[in-house]
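Subject: Predicted fold for Pathogenesis-related protein 1, 198 residues

User T.R. writes:
Posting the sequence so we have a shared reference for the thread.
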Amino acid sequence: MSVMLSHPSSCLLFLFLLLSGHFSAAGTSIPDMMKNRAARLLNRARKAKQSRAFLHAHNIARVTSGMPPLEWNKGLARFAHNWAKQRKPDCNMTHSGGPYGENIFWYRQRKMWSPQKVVTRWFEERFNYDRKTNTCTSDQMCGHYTQIVWRSTTAVGCARMKCDNNRGYLVVCEYDPCGNYEGESPFDQTQQLKNVTD
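User M.O. replies:
I've generated the structure tokens; pasting them so everyone works from the same file.
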């Protein structure tokens, strides 16, 4: 519906129609259409803010470890979203088996985890990683950390999904190129360059 608002009476008529709940040709009231559009814009802005927060948190972790920053990749974020959506019914922290590096995190509803907190939790695994031996401390995890700082990784994309039946939230981040090759250090660029050229 296009409306020319060149005359003051046109503005009044438009305002009257807007406030009176006048219906469009499709049978949807103009206020409902505006609410739907506003909801879509708000959701888009929320996702953009969340994306910036995930990227910023990753790049702080990388710079702190002496690695170059990552770029946000919408394709990776879409892959992460699609995988998180598949896990929505059960909220299981199961890896997708896709072509990217992948970090997964789960938390309950009663404690809100921001993107920064999630990435910080993964980054705290650095205390479980021995750089000299390129190993994790016995019975401890460090693979989330090593994926975040993997030197040849250049892009990240993440998604957060609310699971069904109050099971909490699932966070999935995808990394490209992937890291965590067995026996290789995340900081050894010469080994990684050899893998790329092979």
